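User: Can you predict the 3D structure for this chain?
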Amino acid sequence: MDNLFKERKNRLDVFRKWRKKPIPKAKEIPDHVFMSCSHCHTSVAMMDLVSNHYVCPKCHHPFKISARERIRQLIDEGTFKETDAKMISVDPDDFPGYKDKLERLQKQTGMKEAVITGTGKIKGLPCVIGVMDSNFFMGSMSAAVGEKITRAIELATKKKLALILCCTSGGARMQEGILSLVQMAKTSAAMKKHSDAGLLSIIVLTHPTTGGVSASFAMLGDIILSEPYALVGFAGKRVIEDTIHEKLPDNFQTAEFVLEKGFIDRIVPREKMKEELGRLLSFHCKRSIS
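Assistant: Here is the predicted structure, written as structure tokens:
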């Protein structure tokens, strides 16, 4: 019995000594060293992600990227010239909190609005490009966004250049009311004039492309491409199910589903998008020369 108590006492002494030792601090991992894939939940090293065009190397699901990163991936280095860089939204209806949110997003993203437009070259071929960014108000279409896109289309028409629009949006920006909704008609009219001039327009759909954008210029291109797994549609799946009182397929409104129904022309992996756009532009340039 004495031996039992002695053994217990020794264990307590060891425990007390251990408890008095300072607990070492956990080594902190800097932000953005690893990122988790939203599709397969795999942790991916940031260096691997950057070298792979921000596409998960395991499941090939594309990560969300900024407009400037997409321009970097698509446009030849040193050829991009931004247009209407200082155009910003106003608060026409004095919507509560709207102005403050605009200012906060401008500081966070370094952007003035949810789209960047300009001219550049892809594989040495000139074009006008507009790239939307879901980091800014979920890529919603304000009056300024609609105006910038319209001016980009008109510039392409004036210079007789091909037009490329990379779309991602939650729809019209409700804080601007009817001024946002009329951008659907304005951008669509500009697309018609560009088409009537015999010029090429290419739409690149990315996740997500919904609402007023999908119901206007995003579906009016001569050629409509999409990244894999992108959500493409107008109203949300739950809204449609509640309206028609039917269960929709699990893959409803995915790029793969939309391709099967004939609404888009091709799904192109992000790492091959620049090559595909260059190939399509080369066909257009040969046609223009002849």
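The chain has a mean pLDDT of 90. The CA atoms of residues 30 and 46 lie 11 Å apart.
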